[in-house]
């Protein structure tokens, strides 16, 4: 997962500055107590047990566009799919959103230390994490193909990459995925993809833009950001690869808040809110089909 964050932040035209490692700062303050003296607003539909009165608090590392990042590159408002989904959840519950900023390796300790109610951070629902925390599925993840607009229409399935020159980051899981296609291509009577590896993801983008490669393969969320930053020059070829993992919203193990989180995000999925947010950040709404 740490590798994915590095990939997303290293696109051709964007480099997001490192967030402070402290988990003490927040960008939005909780609402004041209700007029009846309660710790949450009178109209709140939030479950009991939130760590801050009148607010839902998210541990977040704004270093992973388009899921969470600073709007101006190094500070100010935190934007992205996760950040906006958190704001939508807060509105759904009738409380204020509060972001507890921490480094990537401080996300789980921040949750366990009750500095936040949940982690919104593009974390895989791995077996190791699920041993120590609960998680609600929010998004499918996996490799995606990008190409120039005139070629994207020809890339509808994985085998459409056979015989093509494909750029990947060196030694990445995406490079391994494309190399592993050799046997499938052979069985289909096609040549294997010619994999061209580069040390940095920015170089894979340039390889396609400069005509040294026909396509590049990157993780779907990072691919969406690459396309956004290279509008008119690169597009995501949706559906070429199937997702192979799931991102989750993590809460404390066996916390009564966990089922409420699942229910709330399911409601935001059902009413189309999450799809609207995905579209805003150039993400394929199909990756939200996790319910």
Automatic annotation (TrEMBL):
Keyword Cell cycle carried by entry: no
InterPro entries, sorted: Solute-binding_3/MltF_N (IPR001638)
Annotated TM spans: none
SUPFAM superfamilies to which the protein is assigned, alphabetical: Periplasmic binding protein-like II
Domain (Solute-binding protein family 3/N-terminal) ranges: 55-285
Highest taxon listed in the record's lineage: Bacteria
Pfam families with a match to the protein in the record: SBP_bac_3 (PF00497)
Signal peptide range: 1-19
Region Disordered, residue ranges: 29-48
CDD domains the record matches: PBP2_MidA_like
Keyword field: Signal
Designated name of the protein: Transporter substrate-binding domain-containing protein
């Amino acid at each position: 997962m740490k590798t994915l964050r590095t990939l997303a932040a290293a696109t051709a035209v964007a480099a997001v500055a490192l967030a402070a490692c402290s988990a003490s700062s927040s960008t939005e303050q909780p609402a004041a107590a209700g007029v009846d003296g309660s710790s949450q607003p009178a109209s709140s539909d939030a479950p009991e047990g939130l760590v801050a009165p009148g607010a839902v608090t998210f541990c977040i590392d704004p270093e992973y566009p388009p899921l969470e990042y600073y709007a101006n590159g190094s500070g100010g408002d935190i934007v992205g799919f996760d950040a906006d989904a958190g704001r939508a959840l807060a509105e759904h519950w009738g409380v204020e959103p509060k972001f507890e900023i921490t480094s990537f390796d401080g996300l789980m300790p921040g949750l366990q230390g009750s500095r936040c109610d949940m982690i919104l951070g593009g974390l895989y629902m791995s077996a190791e994490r699920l041993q120590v925390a609960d998680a609600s599925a929010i998004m499918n993840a996996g490799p995606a193909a990008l190409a120039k607009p005139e070629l994207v229409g020809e890339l509808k399935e994985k085998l459409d990459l056979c015989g093509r020159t494909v750029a990947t980051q060196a030694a990445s899981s995406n490079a391994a995925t494309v190399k592993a296609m050799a046997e499938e291509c052979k069985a289909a009577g096609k040549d294997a993809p010619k994999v061209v590896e580069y040390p940095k993801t920015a170089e894979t983008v340039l390889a396609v833009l400069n005509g040294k490669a026909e396509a590049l393969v990157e993780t779907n969320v990072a691919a969406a950001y690459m396309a956004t930053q290279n509008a008119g020059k690169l597009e995501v070829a949706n559906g070429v690869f199937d997702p192979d993992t799931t991102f989750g919203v993590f809460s404390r193990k066996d916390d009564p808040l966990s089922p409420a989180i699942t229910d709330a995000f399911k409601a935001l999925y059902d009413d189309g809110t999450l799809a609207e947010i995905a579209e805003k950040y150039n993400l394929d709404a199909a990756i939200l089909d996790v319910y």
